[in-house]
Amino acid sequence: MEAKLKKELGTTMLKSTGHSGGGCISQGQSYDTDNGRVFVKINHKSGAQVMFDGEMASLEAILKTETVKVPKPVKVIQLDTGGCAFVMEHLDIRGLSKYSQHLGEQLADLHLHNKKQLEQLNKEQQTVGKGVGHLEAPVVEKFGFDVTTCCGYIPQVNDWQDDWVTFFSQQRLQHQLNMVEKSYGDREVRELWANHILSVY
């Protein structure tokens, strides 16, 4: 795998730093390269490409908001042994508990970013003689995402919807219930959900 990483990253040096980690989904390892230190997530499952492509697009979208520090994504690499590696900027995140309040504020800014951009755009459009300024992150008025993302190994339906209730109920909750019925044949769940939807609408 290291030879593949060297080739894809265009680096002659690929030295493990000893920083490693992982969970129940992927494993990770940090390396020093000609272009600096990177963190490599590795997953050998068949769905790794979809999962990592979604994660890369998500990080790119967050970076454009300039609200919270996230690792800069570099590349998703298909492995010869199956699965993929996702290369990103290495961030030293040890001892960050003292910054928890600041992180909370940044996460709030992230969630308000699009709303603030919409307000800025509307204000500029109503100002005589002032054109619309350049916005680094695109303004969206719907709920969804351009690419498939994953919750663990489970691909999420991210089709754009006009309102949050439709997006969350149909593409998060309904999607999960469909998988429960398909995997376990539990029709009672569908009936309970259908009754709930009728009571809400």
TrEMBL record:
Keywords: ATP-binding, Kinase, Nucleotide-binding, Transferase
GO molecular function: ATP binding; kinase activity; protein-ribulosamine 3-kinase activity
Source organism: Monopterus albus (Swamp eel)
Superkingdom field: Eukaryota
Name of the featured protein: protein-ribulosamine 3-kinase
Reaction(s) catalysed (UniProt annotation): N(6)-D-ribulosyl-L-lysyl-[protein] + ATP = N(6)-(3-O-phospho-D-ribulosyl)-L-lysyl-[protein] + ADP + H(+)
Keyword Acyltransferase in annotation: no
Keyword Coiled coil: no
Positions of transmembrane segments: none
Family of this protein: Belongs to the fructosamine kinase family.
GO terms under cellular component: cytoplasm
Gene3D superfamilies: 3.90.1200.10, Phosphorylase Kinase, domain 1
PANTHER family: FRUCTOSAMINE 3 KINASE-RELATED PROTEIN, PROTEIN-RIBULOSAMINE 3-KINASE
